[in-house]
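Please, structure for the following, as C-alpha coordinates.
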Amino acid sequence: MNKHETELTVLDQIASSDKVRRKIIDAASALYAKKGFTETSIQEISEKSGVSLPVAYHYVKKKTEIMRMIMEDCLNLFQDSLTRQIKDIDDLVERLAIAIKIYFKVVDRQREKVLLIYQQSGSLDRVCRSKVKQLEVDVSNIFEKIIEEGIAQGVFKKVDTDLMAYNIIMIAHMWILKRWHFKHRIDLDKYTDLQVKIIMDALKK
Protein backbone atom coordinates (compact mmCIF):
# COMPACT_ATOMS: atom_id res chain seq x y z
CA MET A 1 0.00 0.00 0.00
CA ASN A 2 2.78 2.40 0.89
CA LYS A 3 4.53 1.67 -2.39
CA HIS A 4 1.30 2.31 -4.28
CA GLU A 5 0.79 5.61 -2.45
CA THR A 6 4.36 6.64 -3.28
CA GLU A 7 3.79 5.85 -6.95
CA LEU A 8 0.61 7.90 -6.94
CA THR A 9 2.47 10.78 -5.33
CA VAL A 10 5.14 10.66 -8.01
CA LEU A 11 2.50 10.57 -10.76
CA ASP A 12 0.65 13.46 -9.14
CA GLN A 13 3.88 15.47 -9.01
CA ILE A 14 4.59 14.85 -12.67
CA ALA A 15 1.00 15.81 -13.55
CA SER A 16 1.30 19.10 -11.62
CA SER A 17 4.15 20.23 -13.85
CA ASP A 18 3.97 24.02 -13.29
CA LYS A 19 3.77 23.69 -9.52
CA VAL A 20 6.60 21.16 -9.33
CA ARG A 21 8.78 23.17 -11.69
CA ARG A 22 8.30 26.23 -9.47
CA LYS A 23 9.27 24.26 -6.35
CA ILE A 24 12.44 22.98 -8.01
CA ILE A 25 13.44 26.44 -9.22
CA ASP A 26 12.84 28.10 -5.84
CA ALA A 27 14.63 25.38 -3.89
CA ALA A 28 17.60 25.34 -6.26
CA SER A 29 17.92 29.13 -6.17
CA ALA A 30 17.95 29.16 -2.36
CA LEU A 31 20.51 26.36 -2.15
CA TYR A 32 22.76 27.84 -4.83
CA ALA A 33 22.74 31.19 -3.01
CA LYS A 34 23.57 29.52 0.32
CA LYS A 35 25.98 26.73 -0.66
CA GLY A 36 27.08 27.54 -4.16
CA PHE A 37 26.37 25.81 -7.44
CA THR A 38 29.02 23.10 -7.32
CA GLU A 39 28.32 22.13 -3.70
CA THR A 40 24.59 21.60 -4.24
CA SER A 41 23.29 18.20 -5.35
CA ILE A 42 20.05 17.39 -7.14
CA GLN A 43 19.16 15.21 -4.15
CA GLU A 44 19.39 18.26 -1.85
CA ILE A 45 17.21 20.22 -4.28
CA SER A 46 14.74 17.32 -4.24
CA GLU A 47 14.63 17.28 -0.43
CA LYS A 48 14.29 21.04 -0.01
CA SER A 49 11.58 21.33 -2.66
CA GLY A 50 9.59 18.40 -1.30
CA VAL A 51 9.70 16.83 -4.75
CA SER A 52 10.66 13.17 -4.96
CA LEU A 53 14.06 12.45 -6.52
CA PRO A 54 12.64 10.50 -9.50
CA VAL A 55 10.38 13.46 -10.31
CA ALA A 56 13.26 15.92 -9.90
CA TYR A 57 15.26 13.88 -12.42
CA HIS A 58 12.20 13.84 -14.68
CA TYR A 59 12.60 17.63 -14.97
CA VAL A 60 16.38 17.95 -14.80
CA LYS A 61 19.03 15.43 -15.66
CA LYS A 62 21.82 17.70 -14.44
CA LYS A 63 22.14 20.88 -12.37
CA THR A 64 23.01 23.09 -15.31
CA GLU A 65 19.50 22.54 -16.67
CA ILE A 66 18.11 24.20 -13.55
CA MET A 67 19.95 27.40 -14.47
CA ARG A 68 18.17 27.28 -17.82
CA MET A 69 14.86 26.80 -16.00
CA ILE A 70 15.60 29.84 -13.83
CA MET A 71 16.24 31.95 -16.93
CA GLU A 72 13.09 30.62 -18.59
CA ASP A 73 11.13 31.46 -15.46
CA CYS A 74 12.27 35.09 -15.54
CA LEU A 75 11.46 35.37 -19.24
CA ASN A 76 8.02 33.78 -18.85
CA LEU A 77 7.11 36.09 -15.96
CA PHE A 78 8.10 39.08 -18.09
CA GLN A 79 6.27 37.91 -21.20
CA ASP A 80 3.08 37.01 -19.29
CA SER A 81 2.97 40.35 -17.48
CA LEU A 82 3.76 42.26 -20.65
CA THR A 83 1.08 40.55 -22.73
CA ARG A 84 -1.59 41.37 -20.17
CA GLN A 85 -0.64 45.00 -19.67
CA ILE A 86 0.19 46.32 -23.15
CA LYS A 87 -2.19 44.39 -25.38
CA ASP A 88 -4.57 47.37 -25.77
CA ILE A 89 -1.95 50.14 -25.85
CA ASP A 90 -1.33 51.63 -29.29
CA ASP A 91 0.93 54.50 -28.16
CA LEU A 92 4.45 53.12 -28.70
CA VAL A 93 6.11 55.50 -26.24
CA GLU A 94 3.71 54.35 -23.53
CA ARG A 95 4.08 50.71 -24.60
CA LEU A 96 7.87 50.85 -24.35
CA ALA A 97 7.75 52.65 -21.01
CA ILE A 98 5.40 50.02 -19.57
CA ALA A 99 7.53 47.19 -20.97
CA ILE A 100 10.64 48.67 -19.32
CA LYS A 101 8.87 49.11 -15.98
CA ILE A 102 7.52 45.55 -16.05
CA TYR A 103 10.96 44.12 -16.87
CA PHE A 104 12.62 46.12 -14.08
CA LYS A 105 10.05 44.83 -11.58
CA VAL A 106 10.42 41.21 -12.73
CA VAL A 107 14.21 41.45 -12.49
CA ASP A 108 13.94 42.97 -9.01
CA ARG A 109 11.55 40.25 -7.82
CA GLN A 110 13.88 37.61 -9.23
CA ARG A 111 17.11 39.36 -8.20
CA GLU A 112 18.62 36.38 -6.36
CA LYS A 113 18.07 34.25 -9.44
CA VAL A 114 19.48 36.90 -11.77
CA LEU A 115 22.58 37.16 -9.59
CA LEU A 116 22.96 33.40 -9.70
CA ILE A 117 22.92 33.45 -13.49
CA TYR A 118 25.72 36.03 -13.49
CA GLN A 119 27.73 34.20 -10.83
CA GLN A 120 27.32 30.69 -12.22
CA SER A 121 27.20 31.17 -15.98
CA GLY A 122 30.79 29.98 -16.22
CA SER A 123 29.75 26.66 -14.66
CA LEU A 124 27.23 25.89 -17.39
CA ASP A 125 28.03 23.46 -20.15
CA ARG A 126 28.17 24.72 -23.72
CA VAL A 127 24.64 23.59 -24.67
CA CYS A 128 23.00 25.05 -21.59
CA ARG A 129 24.97 28.30 -21.84
CA SER A 130 23.80 28.62 -25.43
CA LYS A 131 20.16 28.16 -24.35
CA VAL A 132 20.50 30.76 -21.60
CA LYS A 133 22.00 33.22 -24.08
CA GLN A 134 19.12 32.63 -26.48
CA LEU A 135 16.59 33.32 -23.72
CA GLU A 136 18.30 36.63 -23.05
CA VAL A 137 18.09 37.43 -26.77
CA ASP A 138 14.36 36.62 -26.63
CA VAL A 139 13.92 39.33 -23.99
CA SER A 140 15.97 41.75 -26.07
CA ASN A 141 13.79 41.03 -29.11
CA ILE A 142 10.69 42.19 -27.23
CA PHE A 143 12.19 45.65 -26.70
CA GLU A 144 13.73 45.72 -30.15
CA LYS A 145 10.38 45.07 -31.83
CA ILE A 146 8.69 47.97 -30.01
CA ILE A 147 11.58 50.31 -30.89
CA GLU A 148 11.52 49.22 -34.54
CA GLU A 149 7.77 49.94 -34.71
CA GLY A 150 8.39 53.37 -33.20
CA ILE A 151 11.06 54.14 -35.80
CA ALA A 152 8.80 52.95 -38.63
CA GLN A 153 6.01 55.23 -37.39
CA GLY A 154 8.32 58.20 -36.95
CA VAL A 155 7.93 58.25 -33.17
CA PHE A 156 11.54 57.27 -32.38
CA LYS A 157 14.83 58.33 -33.90
CA LYS A 158 16.75 55.89 -36.08
CA VAL A 159 19.02 54.03 -33.69
CA ASP A 160 20.80 50.69 -33.48
CA THR A 161 17.77 48.80 -32.17
CA ASP A 162 19.76 45.77 -31.01
CA LEU A 163 22.11 47.98 -29.01
CA MET A 164 19.29 50.02 -27.51
CA ALA A 165 17.35 46.89 -26.52
CA TYR A 166 20.43 45.50 -24.78
CA ASN A 167 21.00 48.85 -23.07
CA ILE A 168 17.57 48.44 -21.47
CA ILE A 169 18.41 44.92 -20.29
CA MET A 170 21.73 45.98 -18.82
CA ILE A 171 20.21 49.01 -17.09
CA ALA A 172 17.73 46.66 -15.42
CA HIS A 173 20.54 44.33 -14.38
CA MET A 174 22.54 47.29 -13.06
CA TRP A 175 19.86 47.73 -10.38
CA ILE A 176 20.61 44.19 -9.23
CA LEU A 177 24.38 44.28 -9.60
CA LYS A 178 24.82 47.74 -8.06
CA ARG A 179 21.79 47.84 -5.78
CA TRP A 180 24.14 48.07 -2.79
CA HIS A 181 24.99 51.56 -4.02
CA PHE A 182 21.62 52.88 -5.24
CA LYS A 183 19.39 51.54 -2.44
CA HIS A 184 20.74 54.07 0.06
CA ARG A 185 19.28 57.01 -1.84
CA ILE A 186 16.61 55.79 -4.28
CA ASP A 187 14.11 52.95 -4.43
CA LEU A 188 13.22 50.84 -7.46
CA ASP A 189 10.37 53.12 -8.59
CA LYS A 190 12.59 56.20 -8.55
CA TYR A 191 15.41 54.34 -10.29
CA THR A 192 12.99 53.11 -12.96
CA ASP A 193 11.48 56.56 -13.57
CA LEU A 194 14.92 58.14 -13.95
CA GLN A 195 16.10 55.43 -16.33
CA VAL A 196 12.92 55.52 -18.43
CA LYS A 197 13.44 59.28 -18.88
CA ILE A 198 17.05 58.74 -19.99
CA ILE A 199 15.99 56.03 -22.48
CA MET A 200 13.12 58.10 -23.88
CA ASP A 201 15.32 61.20 -24.21
CA ALA A 202 17.68 59.09 -26.30
CA LEU A 203 14.85 57.74 -28.49
CA LYS A 204 12.16 60.35 -28.94
CA LYS A 205 12.35 62.85 -31.77
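The longest helix spans residues 126-152. The CA atoms of residues 86 and 95 lie 6 Å apart.
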